[in-house]
Amino acid sequence: MINFFNEDIIYIVRNKTAVRNWIEKAIRKEGYYLQEINYIYCSDAHLKKMNEKYLHHRTYTDIITFDLSEKKKDLLGEIYVSIERVRENAVLFKVPLRDELHRVMIHGVLHLCGYKDKSPADVKRMRNREDYYLSLRSFL
Fold it and tell me: How far is residue 106's CA from residue 46's CA, in Å, rounded to a whole number?
């Protein structure tokens, strides 16, 4: 089950069923089983507070992923997304908002699947997987 929530902003996901199917397909391709993922859309300020409280980082970020899984191949998690940061990044990278949002959404899923993004090699691997899954979207 994939759910979409708003914390302190309002953001409506378009084509929810197709987005869910795309994410579920990516999870299966990674060899995982979907239990539940909650996407929580929020403001920069809200996500920055969470970043400080839970990760001890004093910076803005576009996403924070919490892995709540109890079994190794089961995915259960919460993915917090700053819509403000995603909008700014879409402008910065000159891509449609929808594309940047989908990149961030699949980025969170990949974190739940064990991908890291701390080293340059990890970042490259993560970006390659993001690009691959973005290429599989059939609902645009």
Answer: 21
Residue 136 CB: number of other CB atoms within 10 A? 11
Helix/strand/coil for 60: coil
Mean pLDDT taken over the chain: 93
Give the residue from 30, 1, 19 showing the smallest Cα distance to 132. Answer: 30
According to DSSP, the β-strands at 74-82 and 33-42 are parallel
pLDDT of 63 > 90? The answer is yes
Asked if 61 contacts 85 with a C-beta cutoff of 8 angstroms, the reply is yes
Bridge-based pairing of strands 2-6 and 63-67 is unpaired
The count of residues in the chain is 140
